[in-house]
Amino acid sequence: MDLDVFVSAHRAEWDRLDALLRRQRRLTGAEADELVTLYQRTATHLSLIQSSAPDPQLTGRLSQLVARARGAVTGTRRASWRDVTRFLTQGFPAAVYRSRHWWVPTALLSTVIAALLGWWIGTHPEVQAAIAAPDELRSLTRPGGEYETYYSSHPAAAFAAQVWTNNAEAAALCLVLGVFLGLPVLWILFQNMLNLGVGIGLMSSAGRLDTFLGLVLPHGLLELTAVFVAAGTGLKLGWTVIDPGPRSRRTALAEEGRAALGMAIGLALVLFVSGAIEGFVTPSGLPTWARIAIGIAAELAFLTYVYVLGGRAARCGETGDVTASERSATLPTAA
Questions:
Q1: Rounded CA gap, 315 and 323, in Å?
Q2: End-to-end distance of the chain based on CA atoms, in angstroms?
Q3: Which residue in 30, 122, 148, 161 could disulfide with 205, CB within 3.0 to 4.6 Å?
Q4: What would the DSSP string read from start to end of 42-90?
Q5: How do residues 110-143 score in pLDDT, each as one tens digit?
């Protein structure tokens, strides 16, 4: 492409678009139609220049012009309670439902790994000795020891906030770092399962596995499910880098990345619930069966929410991405 000839041929169209965008008065019907036509042409010109003869100064000018024109054509839009409702009843549960083929196997495999680690640690005294000294292990596992007092060591509200922050950060890291082929996600997930396996192994070796599970299950079911969803979504995002399917890699990553961002917000709300359970229910004086029942109820409520509301929304075409009117225009690509 001869850039000088191209600029000379289309400069008048760009200047006309700029003039229409600067109009202070309301555009007539003909002028509005002209603005839309010039916007579409300029967007095509920008794409051609970026792919054939990139010039930083010209690209910057046209990018700004296209952005202004797009704002004028589509109009500005503010989020409303309707958007929040749509996100909570359609977007988020549909995104979780669509990624179930990633996070359900992740959950099953991770649970098996945690159980095997717990068995290995619980049946091998030499492994326990490598974790901590005998006195430290007794301090951890004895009645009234650190495993039990951990959940009541701080005021409930402060503890719940701390737990929520830590878990939300771990979930966000899984979602964000998934783009690096999912490798950091596997490491984060293994660290979580290792911590769980150590607790299972040490408490089972002390004959107090029932006490440990009574402390972990009330909040752990929902908490771990949220972590598994985040990890599965991160792995899905990493696979998109390798195999974007029929979409271009940029388009696929943009779509999956936007859905993952929405899931980060939704999972933060889920982890807020699990953090509240961990801060107020787990250390409470309720019987063990009652605390576990609350945890099971919270887990079943979340799964029902995902598979009923999310499944219905996904079958209607909801993906968890932003609406079509809010996405950047994309040019068709050759197969």
A1: 16
A2: 24
A3: 122
A4: HHHHHHHHHHHS--HHHHHHHHHHHHHHHHHHH------HHHHHHIIII
A5: 999 999 999 999 999 999 999 989 899 988 889 8
